[in-house]
């Protein structure tokens, strides 16, 4: 029986290994992590992450050919194929701080693999890593090999949170990069055979190592660039009276462009886009490609501009101050159908409003109070370190309350901010919300989920990103 071990039981490792176990019943799959609470959760009825369909997959396989363990060294030693899915956070100090990837956890994993291995291994990069990471890992393993052979493969994930299980069942492509040597190609075939249990062969792309590593960064950079492009257009739409939804539809019907990732919003978030673009910027700078680095930096700048513009629009609309005013924040996750809050635009929007002394009442159907408090007290990129290295959240961030009912959040509020596109926000009883708010009552739709005209008929003053401005707002420009 082929044995697979995955180091790292997070958003990538857990779901990916669960699907491999389901689709390959003849393979034993073990997910290992040093975090006892995380592994305990994977072995319980309440999994540590929320992903539609994940529960069912785990429960079908767990205890049969899918196992979760803290005995890292034992299972790494026994495995034929080792996936490494550890964090690669952005460095916060030293050379490349604020841009370069911190490979501390990856290096530790590589050294541990070298220490405990007693047989040849295929080591698979599953984390998002800078180009040429495989070379560094090869050096660590080779110099500590004790006669054991290692082949390093790059197999980047292209999952979208909220649809990860669907993406794993039916991927656009599976990318496997390996050395162009006989042993390297043999390793590529071994991993290809795993995916071939359910992925059509024409969707399994094989490349050299460096192409595979760079493809992940490039894919996220291109997707983020589309969002920043349409968000830049949203500002122009507001200034001219155009409607960003209509503009997006018109350009999205061009088959050369396509309709995906053209939804304007308060900004992109999640664990990948900003981190990967900063990584790409750093690699470009290290290779003397200043103009290329500056191009990708601008994608981040437009994202920050969009969040600042949204906050400024709120403040300027409400008589240029939100001091002591209650503002309901609906949604804190970076997108719907996930509890993930990493780099969510809600953090910057909430901090911007708190900076003007607003009182916030936050509702999200999946994100816990402790996570919200922790996020609002964290420094940038702290989120990407293990939880025991993150700051303890204070018992309460000043002027923030977290509630579990939308109508409680909006009661007596001066304004409502929609920051996540949860489906339930489309069907709220806005007549009831309006009746219980302070007047004038404002709605700031950061995800373009509400029926703007219907809300205006109720009596709301509505700001929806990239849509023609409410007459109330036309003389109050948001300068970011």
TrEMBL record:
<protein>
    <submittedName>
        <fullName>Uncharacterized protein</fullName>
    </submittedName>
</protein>
